[in-house]
Design brief:
By secondary structure, this protein is an alpha/beta fold. Helices cover 37% and strands 16% of the residues.
């Protein structure tokens, strides 16, 4: 069947928005083949694909859907954790439908092509032969509404994008919808973020598996060695590129994973002879008394140390202590990072008036890397990577707060740190020392990531793409 799919791709001559012929890798052809035939090569109606991020799995799905839905009178649903994620595939379906004359001729006669060209984030696309593709978001906050919409559409064919981010309760709705049709097809694609239904079906004999980690992607020419070496220090390399599920016992029922384990923290403890060197950065977490503490953490290139922790209700006094500490340690103004939200605002304003170049931190601000939910998640992840790559901690029991800080990937595919409010609801005190430590990573000197390359090329002849599907 793969041979037939390669011939079909030659007939369709699919091109991207630049007009370039798309170069398909072997794994992408496998994905397209399963969609075009609505089954795996061994006849299974269930397919699960785990592929490295940026490999091009969504592009392949979009190509398969555009060709299949324009040829057969079938309903296809794209389901993802958020509508924005589901629309990624839909944008590719739209791109191929507009850029390919044969597929474009099959669009519904009332399809507004100009509007489609201007705004590709459509929720529905229909074709003359009554094929239809529609987008649904598996939003965990709107379970009843989403379930009603899915059951109402009643599609016998479903593609799940980032399937591991779809909650089990909504996965059950998808399966009920499919169960209403004798002949149905399901393709689950994504990265192994969670040990939920995505792992259970990966272990099931009822699913055909397509596995594309970075090693296979390298062999297919989708990535370069330089790119992979660059990405090894990026967030979640094991999940996004090595395609490994989180270890059992590391993830709770809501998908939260400890930032660092207690053994990882202990292994990072410095010896007595270790000396701090390099540029010093000072992280200052401001509290207003109660159960919380005002904290200062200093970090050099190799070593971090808690140097101040007091139940200090007077934030102005704490600001004065920060100024004196920075002077004593010879920390430059631009290397002082201070919480500027809520109770910390007054202290930050006082420090800013004395040292104009200090950096105010609002954990809710936008990150520099779009993989993170906010700057708080980005800072904590840099802190984690620093520790795992040899950064040392001057022994102190408060470093164990790093084990109580937890992260997960949210439905939008962004890495998120558990909020202080949720930590408090779970009986976890504010991680003041950990916060001060994380602030020293608010600025990164890491180089930008490289871009991937595409090398595999299929040169198609000019044939009728629908000749075998009339």
């Amino acid at each position: 069947m793969i041979t037939n799919t390669i011939e079909l791709l030659k007939r369709f001559q699919l091109r991207d928005d630049t007009g370039e012929l798309v170069n398909w890798a072997g794994g992408q052809v496998e994905i397209i083949d399963c969609i075009m035939n609505r089954e795996s090569p061994d006849g299974l109606k269930r397919v699960e694909t785990i592929a490295a991020t940026q490999y091009g799995k969504s592009l392949a799905v979009g190509a398969g859907l555009a060709m299949r839905a324009s040829t057969f009178p079938e309903k296809w649903s794209i389901v993802a954790g958020t509508k924005e994620k589901a629309r990624i595939i839909m944008e590719y379906v739209t791109m191929f439908s507009l850029n390919n004359p044969a597929i474009r001729s099959q669009l519904d006669i009332d399809t507004p092509l100009e509007r489609l060209r201007m705004k590709k984030s459509q929720d529905r696309l229909g074709y003359k032969k009554h094929g239809e593709v529609r987008v649904f978001s598996a939003d965990a906050t709107r379970v009843a509404e989403v379930s009603k919409s899915l059951m109402g559409f009643g599609s016998p064919n479903v593609v799940e994008d980032e399937s591991a981010l779809i909650p089990d309760v909504l996965q059950a709705t998808v399966m009920r919808m499919l169960g209403g049709h004798k002949d149905n097809f399901l393709m689950k694609i994504g990265n192994p973020f969670n040990r939920n239904h995505f792992l259970r079906t990966w272990l099931s004999d009822h699913y055909y598996k397509i596995f594309i980690d970075y090693e296979r992607a390298l062999k297919e020419g989708r990535f370069s060695e330089e790119f992979i070496n660059e990405m090894r220090d990026e967030a979640m390399f094991d999940i996004l590129y090595a395609c490994k599920f989180p270890e059992e016992g590391m993830i709770d029922e809501k998908g939260w994973i400890p930032l660092l384990t207690e053994s990882e923290i202990t292994r990072a403890y410095a010896n007595e002879e270790d000396q701090m060197f390099g540029i010093k950065r000072l992280g200052c977490d401001v509290a207003g008394g109660g159960r919380n503490y005002s904290v200062m953490v200093v970090r050099g290139f190799n070593l971090a140390k808690k140097i101040y922790k007091k139940n200090e209700p007077d934030t102005m006094r704490f600001a004065s202590n920060v100024l004196q500490t920075a002077t004593d340690l010879k920390v430059k103004d631009r290397d002082i990072f201070v919480d500027k939200v809520g109770i910390g605002r007054g202290a930050f304003d006082k420090l800013k008036s004395a040292k104009d170049w200090i950096i105010g931190i609002n954990g809710g601000d936008s990150p520099t890397n779009e993989r993170f939910f906010n700057i708080r998640a980005e800072m904590y992840w840099r802190a984690r990577e620093w520790v795992l790559h040899g950064g040392k901690l001057l022994p102190d029991k408060d470093w164990m707060q790093l084990a109580s800080v937890k992260y997960k990937v949210n439905p939008s595919g962004k890495l998120q740190i558990m909020s202080k409010e949720e930590m408090l609801r779970n009986g976890i005190d504010s991680p003041d020392v950990a916060d001060g430590f994380a602030m020293t990573f608010a600025r990164s000197e890491e180089p930008p990531a490289m871009t991937q390359t595409q090398t595999i090329n299929v040169q198609p002849p000019n044939l009728d793409p629908y000749s075998n599907y009339v």
